[in-house]
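Lab notebook, bench 4. The sequencing result for the construct came back, and we need a structural model before the next group meeting so we can plan mutations. Quick request posted to the team channel:

Model the 3D structure of this chain.
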Amino acid sequence: MNVPHANELFVGSRWVAPRSSELADVVAPYDGRVIRQLPRPTIDDAKIAVDEAQGAFDSWAGLTHDARREIVARFCGALDKRLDEIVRVWALEAGMPFRNGDELTKAASELWNRALDESQTASWIETRETSMGRIEVRHDPIGPTVGIVAFNGPHMQFALAIIPGLLAGNTMIIKLPPEARMLGYIFADAAADAGFPSGVLSILAGDADVSQYLVEHPGIAAVHFTGGTEVGVSVMHSCADRVANVVLELGGKSASIVAADADLDMTVPALVDAMALYSGQICVAMTRLLVAREIHDAVVDGLVAGLKALKMGDPADPETTWGPLAAPRFLDRAEGYIERAVAGGATIAAGGGRPSGLEGYFLEPTLLTNVTNDMEVAQNEIFGPVFCVIPFDTLDEAVAIANASRYGLSGSVFTTDERAGLDVARRVRSGVFIINGTFPCLAAPFGGVKQSGFGREGGPEGLFALTQTKSITLSSAVSATA
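Done. Here's the predicted structure in token form:
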């Protein structure tokens, strides 16, 4: 597959020669083949990106919102022209099944175009009359900002975090993971077409050393991090040392509650579809299935049948509904959780092993029963295809189980009782929640509570996530000499 400017890096809004000759392999998770070699960004490249972002901040922040929006709109338009390419590359280098990738990429496009529209009506500057005088309240850019995005939807994170950050007036350095090296080049090619001013935007698909350098750099004013909680804690510590702003979109162990009155003809297929989405490699995956005891066996039987019917294979095939994991380390981690869960008393109702006849990083969709909520497999985010069924007797008990987690990202309930569903939704401690569904609305504020992070993406709240609020007293009701 053609990769634009494959021997260069996108630093400071332009293509430049890398500081090192070192190359990184791009490996297809479907069969483990090396499909490309691309420059490996180094700390020296990251240093230049920071210098460029610092040098460009004042001029970029000094533009009017309309002027910035015009440039960012060109970027979004250039991305829109590359949607099909994004879907193909995502399947090739990260294993996202084409069908899901196409749906999510179209959704990302809707979201970045929505952000453009919302930026036109957002209250970036407003005047308020108070008992102490007239004030101007401003949402100003913070400064040079690092956006660390994940492999399971980097363009979605562009829509929810990066584009709002640029619209707000921040210069941005985007750090993608190794599993999204080729995608980074597509994004950078679109940015080059948009014609960002020098220094405003850098896009680097680097390793952990580059992330650490950027997060700890004293010239970085803010970090927007999407990823696992353990790394997020480290990011927060680094930012705390210099009191830099930080937004954390972290992991989850979300619970889907299936009430006794749930419509199983609708509920079971919805849960199977949710479990199949990128083989559980999404932060909002419903990995704890809390099922009313009287329908437990019927739900498990339905889930097992649904999971066995998934078509496993090449993620580039539009008929594939179950693809590989993105990297060997994710496969090893998931297998370790399954092994320890079984040793602790869990039963494998479906899956549990690597399928025969496939060479890549495949793991069967795994459904575990006889799981208690205090077990490791029910408490830790696995980020893979391991799902636990836990029975409950009352909705109060189900809510208590859902809340007995260090995470608080998402959750859902399936019930035909609208009032009961809303009551459960309000009592579960999570940043988002869905009634009779599994995937949250990303056009609304999205984010977590507890160890799932803080800060919000999406909607007007997301536009202001990478801003700082400033108030200017225009006229005081109290004399300065009083």
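The chain has two domains: 9-250+452-471, 255-435.
Will bring this to the meeting.
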